[in-house]
């Protein structure tokens, strides 16, 4: 299965696989969240009974009610009036003109009998007064009224004029509105009738002229009124259908108003709001872009490992979304916010152990945001911030509590710590919220927080082996388990090849210290060293470290036979490790720790008999070391065996030996296929010298006892 996956990777290329994985993850994320952002719709028909109580899932404006409210308030705005003092002068001028026309008619030449006849003068006055008669107020003087005015002497006529003008100035000096005109005209009529200055025969004409002169002088300022109306309309707050507001009760008739509100809230089946879908698309686009950036900047140098880590992240996101969907499906059956049961630290734990801290932090943020969208506890189709923060805090707590040397037991302890963080957040949630909670609700939320933490650890422990097997990953926890001396294969090495076991421990110390010094994986190197010579358990007596109190069997064998036995232990060890389903990294250490180096002792021994012997037949089958860790193990393996055979090792001798072995490996091209640099090799040599000096330091010679 793993080889088939490797072929697919090699054929498509890791970059294409990364893009496909990002695309599929985005599609899964979109599909999982699309139902949550769309909200619920109902099969509602007009004038039928509602089968359930429906609440609005969002706050929306009701434009019709808003406009009705604006109209109501606009109608209540009192008109703004403006007093025009020129109107009094204008009306006085009209009266003056009226009497001027009368005087002009009376002043016709005495010898012109036609013009001085009453009918001619009235006709002339009618012509002069035509504009006044056709005006808005309409001066209505009858022929009898005109005759009475024409019959007055000029001085009496002047007195009537002056009295009318005085009354006009008096009444129009105060504001007169349109609705007050009738009242003021009645008052001026009464004043005229009581005034003795008006002859009896012209009283009715004076009343008509006085009533004609009274018009509104305080008029509505249309521009100012319109501005005030507009200001009032603009000040009206939009009428809204509020989130959580009951739109229709169960059993209530769905009338036109209720149906209109359901349509506004987007809760009828005929409607599809594209805005949430577009918003979700942008969210997924940004999330996947950031995920690609985070995974591309991973400290892992191998593109294959980067792709594998991305696949792990995608799988974790998928599992988390599946758990959310499960909670979302059953959440409506509870009165509590069951989202608090969600295992907050599950994603962070798995990604932290398999793909690194940076990826784990981002995945935790992404999962918390997705949970905030999906696991809503209210009627809102938006982000549920309390759930998002709850998962974020729990996930980050787990990520920063996990250590490189932690095992599964440590993971359980971290789960308890996550549970504590969850309960602290629940306490914050209950205290900050304005809602009153019953003791049963408080108990549920704290229990859910505890279950969430423990469930995170339990699921992480249960899922890690599947991730490691499916993606060929080797986690820190797995390495720690493999380093346990009680592991069956390590017991086999100890029992059957005790010398090899001791040799492996020494090589492990050297390799671990050297890898840590250059930033490589020291734990991987240490564990790999424990198993690198397991192939020697096939024929332990043919390896010198296991030849205790026995002769060397190679002395009785031809060089070619000894060669076959020695060269086979790397390949045989790799096969044994594969058979026991050990991680590929450990298998690679067994297969590559000698690279393609030459088995010099038996090669030169065989060459004494056959000078034409090919050197290639006495080289290990390899391949050459592919990683820094295996290159360092290759050096440490050769160095430990050489130092162990050295008599009275000193610092100077050890340094020369280290330099010689590294130089020999370089010249032989053993490090051509890995990315270890000369600078790093220099650091490795210094660390190995220091470590060996610590092991083989000179000891004080204690004096013998004398009797």
UniProtKB/TrEMBL annotation:
Residues 500-642 form the HD domain. The chain crosses the membrane at residues 277-296, 308-330, 336-354, 385-402, 414-432, 444-467. CDD domains: HDc. Keywords: Membrane, Transmembrane, Transmembrane helix. The keyword Transmembrane helix applies. The keyword Membrane applies. NCBIfam families: HDIG. PANTHER family: CYCLIC-DI-AMP PHOSPHODIESTERASE PGPH (PTHR36442:SF1). This is HDIG domain-containing protein.
